[in-house]
Design a protein that fits this description.
By secondary structure, this protein is α/β, with parallel strands linked by helices. The chain contains 13 helices and 14 strands. The strands form four sheets. Strands 5-4-3-10-11 form a five-stranded parallel beta sheet, with helices on both faces. Zinc ion binds next to loops.
Length: 412
């Protein structure tokens, strides 16, 4: 699938430190040590509605990781999927009377434009579930050979007990798993299943649903296996980071890791599992199913500067849950104007220490609020809002503009 155009990224005069990130599986910090090229998989959208601030926050979080690695001197291979065939997409298409392919294409295109506007670096491989069907079928074949697949009517299920490490990604106990599973696409009560937590990997053809031929009969891919198949194909074993929002920890990332570990025993799926917090609006998690949404495209259409949207996101640590408000946006609009004023002066407070601090903050579990605070300090010193204006660094603005762009994705 077509990705979106990459913005130019300035090269910084110094390399940033090694990047450490919180790993959900261990509950601790992992200092990533990419083997030259860092390998990142981030779960993409299910394109049945426009990109909301929750999505944007998650993709900006992993964009910071991508940038931190690049600024530490690594190349990055970034892979992202599009769940362009799945129950919620088909249901929405039926409800609004649009062809599901058309709906998916339209919303995916809007997402590309939103990501480009927010200066999120594009994945090198942007792949739809539909185009990955051959990879999915190949992986099901490998899981079947390992004894991990069984049939219930025309559907194929993956047996969670095939993976001795099942549960290691989420750390969830069985009660918790049983509680969450049905809320996130699972069908614990289906008669004929060996374990209520087993998940569908191939859904047999249904009347009125799209399907593709396969050695297991016509059908379509299950959700979790789509991401496993793509990550294994485009990144290989033990890639550096698997990312997504915290609503994907269980069952999605647990199942993906399980599939991979059963298909290729002895090899971990990812070295770290990183999760962004949930963005709420009107007191509840922003979600397409609840409809309490603030869309990136709607704000863009009302001439809101995408850099102000991005700044709102950067002001929250990616792991925290927080609530979007209009006041946050208007404050960020003012802040961007103040920053632009300071940057327009050319000379300013010394930029070198800010460069060091911002790169250190981002390498320290993507601490964007700390990075933003360092920039605020520079702006205040440059404009003299906290005393005398400091113009001792004649090239401050040049350095700061490059830093804001390369590290934080803010082009001002
Ligand atoms: N297609 C699957 C992943 S393979 C999916 O979850 N799609 S999605 O469109 O529902 O979500 C896309 C990404 O946005 C996921 O990483 C999800 O965790 C994240 N996300 C969804 N809602 C929120 C929210 N309110 N706050 C933060 N991130 C969110
Ligand atoms: Zn996924």
């Amino acid at each position: 699938m077509r990705s979106w155009p990459s913005p130019e990224i300035p090269t910084l005069p110094v390399d940033g430190p090694a990047v450490s990130i919180h790993d959900t599986a261990t509950g601790g910090r992992v200092t990533t040590r990419p083997d030259g090229t860092a390998r990142l998989y981030v779960c993409g959208i299910t394109p049945y509605d426009a990109t909301h601030m929750g999505h944007a926050a998650t993709y900006v979080a992993f964009d910071l990781l991508n940038r931190a690695w690049r600024n530490a001197g690594h190349d990055v291979t970034y892979v992202q999927n599009v769940t362009d065939v799945d129950d919620p997409l088909l249901e929405r298409a039926t409800k609004v009377g649009v062809d599901w392919v058309e709906l998916a294409e339209r919303e995916t295109e809007l997402y590309r434009q939103d990501m480009a506007a927010l200066r999120v670096l594009p994945p090198a491989h942007y792949i739809g579930a539909v185009e990955s069907i051959p990879l999915v079928l190949d992986l099901i074949g490998r899981l079947d050979a390992a004894g991990a697949i069984y049939r219930v009517e025309t559907d194929l299920y993956y047996s969670v007990n095939a993976d001795p490490a099942f549960g290691a990604v989420s750390g969830a106990d069985r009660d918790e798993m049983l509680r969450i599973f049905p809320e996130r696409g699972g069908d614990p009560d289906r008669p004929g299943k060996r374990d209520p937590l087993d998940c569908v990997v191939w859904r047999g053809e249904r009347e009125g649903e799209p399907s593709w031929p396969s050695p297991f009969g016509p059908g379509r891919p299950g959700w979790h296996i789509e991401c496993t198949a793509m990550a294994m194909e485009f990144l290989g074993a033990a890639f550096d980071v698997q990312g997504g929002g915290s609503d994907l920890v269980f069952p999605h990332h647990e199942m993906s890791a399980g599939h991979a570990q059963v298909a290729a025993p002895g090899e971990r799926f990812a070295q770290a599992y990183a999760h962004a917090g949930m963005v709420a609006y009107d007191g509840e998690k922003m979600s397409k199913s609840k409809g309490n949404l603030v869309f990136v495209s709607a704000l863009r259409n009302s001439e809101v500067d995408p850099m102000a949207i991005r700044l709102v996101l950067l002001r929250h640590h990616y792991r925290s849950d927080w609530e979007w408000t209009d006041a946050l946006l208007w404050d960020a609009v003012d802040t961007v104007a103040t920053w632009r004023k300071a940057l327009s002066l050319g000379a300013g407070a010394p930029a070198a220490p800010v460069l060091t601090e911002v790169l250190a903050a981002l390498a320290d579990d993507l601490d964007a609020p700390r990075a933003v605070a360092a920039v605020e300090g520079w702006v205040a010193a440059t404009l003299g809002t906290d005393g005398l204006a400091d113009t001792s660094d004649p090239d401050a603005a040049v350095t700061m503009l490059a830093l804001l762009d390369a590290a934080l994705g803010l082009s001002l």
